[in-house]
Amino acid sequence: MKQIEKELSPLAASPENADATVALADRLWDEAWLETRLLAAFLLGSVSPEEAPLVARITAWTSQVRDAELRSRLLDASLVRMRKEAPDMFLQMIGEWLRPERQRLWSDAMRAAVSAIRDPSFGNLPALMEALEPAVQAAPVDIQLDLEELITALYDSSPTETTFFLRQVITSSENPMTAVAFRRMSPSLPEELKESIRELVRGKPLSTG
């Protein structure tokens, strides 16, 4: 796979080959083997985000994947150039996926965000936190594991900013389930952050009944 990616990389990244690269990615994806789908994701991530309708394609592909590991790798590899070259487009995509009526995409948004946080070429962490805030505040149970991974990645990248961000999320929330969710998640979070969260949720109501 690494050798194939190395051979294809300069061709896939060339602007004049954008249409052919996307067509090949579609064909490989439709083969439905793990290796062909990983290669398809790599090819999408090689195309300039300005050259092809990547968001629609990635949204469609993630809906076809049940394996969590493959979905995470898809949401990492296919968005490489978008994160680096078009961060505003990436943030817009995250915002669209996190709309209240699209909760089925919230998990994908979290996974894509984790890849961005861990990508040194992505430099707009404050804007990403702002886009994520409504979903982090809502904290539905079905994405709790994704939230744990997201918060841990944020804290590893920027402990001070993350602590301040979570303070805003928890203290400003009028939804009692926010505190409940963070109580549940806290044992799985980094030790220092765990203590900060316990302080923040102490005294918050457990529920409204």
Architecture overview:
This protein has about 210 residues and is mostly helical. The chain has helices at about 1-15, 20-30, 35-45, 55-60, 70-75, 80-85, 85-95, 105-115, 125-140, 145-155, 160-170, 175-185, 190-200. The protein folds into two domains: about 1-85, no CATH class; about 85-209. The protein has 13 helices and no strands. Helix 1 (about 1-15) packs parallel to helix 3, helix 3 packs parallel to helix 5 (about 70-75) and helix 8 (about 105-115) runs parallel beside helix 10. The longest helix is centred in the first third of the chain and has 14 residues, at about 20-30.
Specify the biggest β-sheet: none
- Distance separating the two termini: 54 Å
Sequence of secondary-structure elements: HHHHHHHHHHHHH
The share of residues in extended strands comes to under 5%
Q: Tell me, what's the shape?
A: elongated
**Unreliable segments of 5+ consecutive residues:** none
Overall residue-averaged pLDDT value: 91
The share of residues in helices is over 70%
Radius of gyration: 18 Å
Secondary structure tally, helices = 13
Derived from helix and strand composition plus strand pairing, the structural class reads: mainly alpha
- Count of extended strands: 0
* Count of the domains: 2
Question: Can you give keywords for this protein?
Answer:
single chain; 209 residues; mainly alpha; 2 domains; 13 helices; 0% strand; elongated
Q: What's this, in brief?
A:
This protein is mainly α.
